Amino acid sequence: MSRLLLTITALGCLISCETRTPKDLSKESIIPRPASITATGSSFRITGSTSIVITEGDSDLEWVGQYLAGLLSESTGFDIDLVDENKGSESIILKIDPEGPIGEEGYELNITEDELTLTATQPAGIFYGIQTVRQLLPAGIESSTPQEGPWEIATGTILDNPRYGYRGAMLDVARHFFSVEDVKRYIDFLAYYKMNVLHLHLSDDQGWRIEIKSWPNLTSHGGSTEVGGGEGGYYTQDNYREIVKYANDRYITIVPEIDMPGHTNAALASYAELNCDNKARELYTGTEVGFSSLCTDKEITYEFIDDVIRELSEMTPGPYFHIGGDESHATKKEDYLYFVERVQSIVNKYGKRMIGWDETGQTQLLPNSVVQFWNSSEYSLQAVAKGAKVIMSPAKKTYMDMKYDSTTSLGYDWAAYIEVDDGYQWDPAEYVDGLTDENILGVEAPLWSETVTNMEEIEYMVFPRLPGYAEIGWTSAVLRDWENYSERLSNHGDRFEAMEIDFYRSELVPWDK
Ligand code: TNX
User: Fold this and answer.
1) CB within 8 A of 238, min separation 6: which ones?
2) Ligand 1: which residue has its CA nearest to atom 2?
3) Which terminus of the chain has a lower count of CB atoms within 10 Å, N or C?
4) Which of 226, 289, 371 has the most ligand 1 atoms within 8 A of CB, as the residue to mutate?
5) Which class would CATH give 166-478+492-498?
6) Cα–Cα distance between 223 and 233 in angstroms, integer?
7) Residue 2 above 80 pLDDT?
8) The domains spanning 18-160 and 166-478+492-498 adopt the same CATH topology
9) Domain residue ranges in the chain
10) Quick one: which of 120, 352, 149 has its CA closest to 258?
């Protein structure tokens, strides 16, 4: 009898081990780590009869519902519909509850054997909850072709909301140009990890990448090359609007950056009158920094900037405009201060909040302005003393163009080698003495592209560091530790593969367990 029992148990285990029915929600590898998880020890299954139930008439909710239906249908092969009444079984229910229990971007996920209910005060929260659901399903859910199920999720409740309202990454499309398709893929990476800002570095010495109708040479000439002498490229205004819409649909705000007064050789090559000596510069395809400057005491300079900020702001629904302001070594200090203050008023005139790299902290910032800390504690502290806020992008921790170690072939090492653990193990509110969560808007990880030339190379530098920056922005410090994180990250390896992401297999992460 007992032998029979044993055999039955063994058989049972064999079956469930083979299908790996998830039963313990608290053991799942969700990144960023949610605020709270309660497991109830059973499982829910998405089948061919699953539908997505939403309240009729909410167009934002309808959009996220379609987004989820699309994701699930593609990889399960089921035809998953949106319906407005829950008639079936195994339903997924999406609900907006303005009085809901959780903050602006938060969500509550309730999973029973019979249904999965996702509630939030706003559609953004539903969107983030959907990312959690994706991560609870087998990795095959990320495939673009139908895979074998079963599609099971452990039961229980997740309550979740972010630590910071600004959770970003930057992409430098100036040193090397990347296509609209590449930018959309980058946006999808951010969305998967609940990040909500994409900062586009749209101009630099080597290229001007955004069409400005009143100054057409910026792109026809200034956009015609890149580092190494390749053909460069630029976004038409329609391209840019398409990127903004794609991001917006994923609850991601685009922050456009036009870097000035330094990092402007591409503009200085396109229009002679922007130079103090009225001589157009040669196009530049090298990687030096700090040699160019707009002519800060010519009125035409400010007419030019006014046009650029106006045209770009009109296409940018988000609240920010980034003016760069870094490494202006070819601009006299007094000219730099005058310039930034004048540009700040133009940004405000077009209804935007100015962001500048930390050097702009030396100027008379207005309290609605923001500095992006990358290097100087001193300038960042000067900025908060004037009431400005800070975005934390310490180069030694968040620069995704830094090599992982001495063997990484791409990237730089001037700030540091940033292995996956180095990128993860720091806290924004403890990094600079005197900068606390009261001043900190959030976190951003930049990818500069002097050494990065295509999507595969972007992926290699960004993965697997990006999920760590997302977690720093989302998860409270008390829930973060490397042991726990690296374990969860290791379980994202097969997700990266399903998404065909070319990632760095750091030896510090236990991938094969
Ligand atoms: C510094 S960080 C820069 C960029 C370079 C980067 C390369 C900052 C505000 N400026 O112009 O691309 O280093 O790592």
Assistant:
1) none
2) 374
3) N
4) 289
5) alpha beta
6) 5
7) no
8) no
9) 18-160, 166-478+492-498
10) 352
119 three-state secondary structure: strand
Distance 171 CA to ligand 1 centre (A): 12
The Cα–Cα gap between 298 and 372 comes to 28
327 has catalytic annotation: yes
Task: Tell which atom from ligand 1 comes closest to the C-alpha of 412.
Answer: 14
Q: How far apart are CA 401 and CA 418, in angstroms?
A: 9
234 CA to middle of ligand 1, Å?
A: 20
Instruction: Write the DSSP symbol of residue 51.
Output: -
Radius of gyration of the chain (CA): 24
- CA 480 to ligand 1 center in whole angstroms: 29
Q: Which residues pair with 207 in a beta bridge?
A: 204
Among the listed residues 327, 341, 487, 497, the single catalytic one is: 327
Distance between CA atoms of residues 504 and 493, nearest Å: 10
Return the half-sphere exposure (C-beta side, CA atoms, 13 A cut-off) of residue 167.
Answer: 29
- Please give the share of the chain, as a percent, with pLDDT higher than 90: 92
The contacts found for 428-432 with CB under 8 angstroms, 24 or more apart, are: 428/164, 428/392, 428/472, 429/477, 431/392, 431/394, 431/397, 432/373, 432/377, 432/380, 432/381
The dihedral through the CA atoms of 30, 105, 246, 458 has a sign that is: negative
Q: Are 498 and 74 in contact (CB under 8 A)?
A: no
Task: Say yes or no to pLDDT of 140 above 70.
Answer: yes
Q: Binning pLDDT at 50, 70 and 90, where does residue 19 land?
A: low
Coil, strand, or helix at residue 215?
Answer: coil
CATH T-level topology, domain 18-160 = Chitobiase; domain 2 (3.30.379)
Does any ligand 1 atom lie closer than 6 A to the CB of residue 327? yes
Distance of CA 487 from the midpoint of ligand 1 (Å): 32
Render pLDDT for 484-507 as a digit per residue (tens, 0 to 9): 999 999 999 999 999 999 999 999
Angle at 197 between CA 219 and CA 424, to 5 degrees: 120
Is the Cβ atom of 401 under 6 angstroms away from ligand 1? yes
Q: How many helices (H) and strands (E) does the chain have?
A: 16, 17
Model pLDDT for residues 232-285, shown as the tens digit of each residue: 999 999 999 999 999 999 999 999 999 999 999 999 999 999 999 999 999 999
| pTM of the predicted structure, to 2 decimals | 0.95
Tell me: the pLDDT tens digits for 324-350? Answer: 999 999 999 999 999 999 999 999 999
Q: Whose CA is nearest to atom 5 of ligand 1?
A: 448
DSSP class of residue 358 equals: G
CA dist 468 and 38 (Å) reads 23
272 in Cβ contact with 295 (< 8 Å): no
